[in-house]
Design goal:
The protein is mostly helical. The protein has a domain of about 40 residues. Helices cover about 45% and strands about 0% of the residues. The protein is built from 2 helices and no strands. It is flat and about 50 Å long. The two termini are about 25 Å apart.
């Protein structure tokens, strides 16, 4: 959806995004999720933080190594 689209023309998008957020929270157990499109380093950093916090919640604070395959692209969120 275009950021300058009139509010009265995007009610379907907003309903779909709100529903997806609720579903993702239910599936992941997260308190909240962001639908902001992350890319590149910001997306990878957000992914690494989520993984780190997951391990911390299990008491696995010693897990501090991230393996990145040679085929990883620098702007690919899957790198994380």
């Amino acid at each position: 959806m275009h950021p300058f689209a009139p509010r009265d023309q995007v009610t379907g998008y907003i309903a779909m995004i709100d529903s997806l957020q609720d579903q993702l929270k239910a599936i992941t157990g997260f308190d909240d999720v962001s639908m902001q499109p992350n890319s590149g380093a910001s997306g990878e950093y957000a992914g690494l933080l989520a993984i780190r916090r997951y391990h911390e919640s299990l008491g696995e604070t010693n897990r501090d190594v991230c393996l990145i395959p040679m085929s990883a692209h620098g702007t690919n969120p899957a790198t994380a």
